Amino acid sequence: MDRHRVFGRSKLGTAVRFATITLGLAVAAPTVLPVLAQDPLPPPSNVGTIIPRGYQGPPPSQVQEDPRGRALVGPVQLLRSGRVDPEEMSVRLPLYRGEVAGGGNVWYILTDTTDKANAEALGINHSAKLAYAEVGQAVRHATLGDDGILTFEEGAVDFSPNRAVTPGDAPNFFPPKAFSAGSVGDAAYTPLVKIDNAGGHIYNAPVVAYNVERDQIDFCEGDPDYSLVHDRVLRLCPNANGGNVTLQMTPIFSFAKPAAYISTEASDEMVAALDNGTFTPSLGDVPVGRDDGAFSSVERLFPIANGPTGMDNPQRQGLNSALSDKGPDGKPAPPIHVIGGLPTVALDYSPLWDLNLGEWTKEAITKGYRSRLIDEFQLLAMVEQGHLTGPEGAEFGSTGIVVNCPIVMRFM
Fold it and tell me: Which candidate, 321, 334, 412, 410, places its Cα nearest to that of 370?
């Protein structure tokens, strides 16, 4: 059986399903994440002083005279083609219209490329590692027309399914009892596209609407029809050749720096359902378990299954929390995952994340070691010391699941 066509189940089966969750929104319909001061946006720097907010000068990261400024402390927007709204936790990006060979519109965004010069020109992320993702069906092909329109050889996305997630019973809300992704890619669909007649570079081009006309997806004022568009869409304003689209971001930590990305696809249906993403089996062809090694196309993502819960708990983190904790407005709490390197912090950024699921041991919980983790090496130290393991005590490591989560910005 062609595994790329098995859309009705989670890739890893019952026992290993514990290892299939990422940073999802744990509700049955797309919503806006709550923004809490500690989750994870930094507080204003005048806390504990006698000066008012705004008195201080610009953060070091904004000092343009220093060619290394982007590496210094302070907010840095990495996906510069967009406009970030930190209160809504959203980003507005250019929307592009393409076509599929044989007819039909494709509406997509651009977030990353192997072309460093064009990444700078377009204000998108450079990821050299994407060159090594061209394995199996993980990369599809397109040609550029003289009208500037990309024509994709193949690949379709069905946005009509209803996304649904049923949490497990307390206190183990994770894994969910049932789940279904809100959009599903066919066997040929992948967000990674190689433009054959324009340099052969690979672009990360997630599709947000497929085979629909402009007037069908005019949601400039919000309230989008999720049977027609990606579940992370908050607003979409199309025009003849593209337009713009506003997408929900997810807060995360990278090397203790609060940051945000958008999650668009996952190779596992459970992950896609919890993450408001498109179930994309072809991404399962991307090799995993080789983070930081030669020819690796991935970085690592470290969700925690059973972190501390409680909306008022400043240590709150993980999938049990995301599936149970709600803010005052009834919206779900973000799980606050730890990720590996991102641009300006490390050299090995990739929007493709290799899921490494951690679970606190009963002994660690009893001894009071369980707390919020915000740094990869802090987390790996807990693994090395035996306080974090894989699901149900299994060896810690890759779940075999790949998630496409382009980084948008870091806040520190």
Answer: 321
pLDDT at site 13: 38
Q: Distance between CA 171 and CA 177 in Å, rounded?
A: 13
**Separation of alpha carbons 396 and 213, rounded Å:** 46
Is-cis flag, bond preceding 43, omega within 30? no
- Residue 4's pLDDT is 38
Residues in Cβ contact with 57 at an 8 Å cutoff, skipping those fewer than 6 apart: none
Sign of the dihedral through C-alpha 299, 381, 395, 314 = negative
Distance CA 44, CA 108 (A): 36
CB-side exposure of 85: number of CA atoms within 13 Å?
A: 16
**Which tokens in the block code for residue 412?**
């520190």
Integer Cα distance of 109 and 99 in angstroms: 13
Which of 251, 286, 245, 244 lies closest to 265 in space, CA to CA?
286
Q: How many Å separate Cα 156 from the centre of its chain?
A: 20
4 φ/ψ angles, rounded to the nearest 5 degrees: -70, -10
Distance in angstroms (rounded) separating the CA atoms of residues 321 and 209: 31
What pLDDT does 269 receive? 98
**pLDDT, tens digit, 9 for 90 and up, residues 67-102:** 566 888 899 999 999 999 999 999 999 999 999 998
**What's the burial of 347, exposed, middle or buried (CB within 10 Å: 0-12/13-18/19+)?**
exposed
Name the residue ranges covered by the structural domains of the chain.
15-410
What are the structure tokens assigned to 232, written together? 């992370």
Q: What pTM was computed for the model? A: 0.89
- What's the 3-state SS for 302-322? ECECCCCCCCCCCCCCCHHHH
DSSP character for 33?
Answer: P
Which residues of the chain fall short of a pLDDT of 70? Answer: 1-38, 49, 51, 54-57, 63-69
Return left, alpha or beta for 40; rule: phi > 0 is left, psi -120 to 50 is alpha, else beta: alpha
Cα 354 from Cα 386, distance rounded (Å) = 21
- Strands 150-152 and 90-100, by their bridges, are parallel
Beta strands of 22-175 (E only): which ranges?
A: 76-77, 83-85, 90-100, 105-108, 112-113, 125-126, 140-144, 150-152, 157-158, 164-166
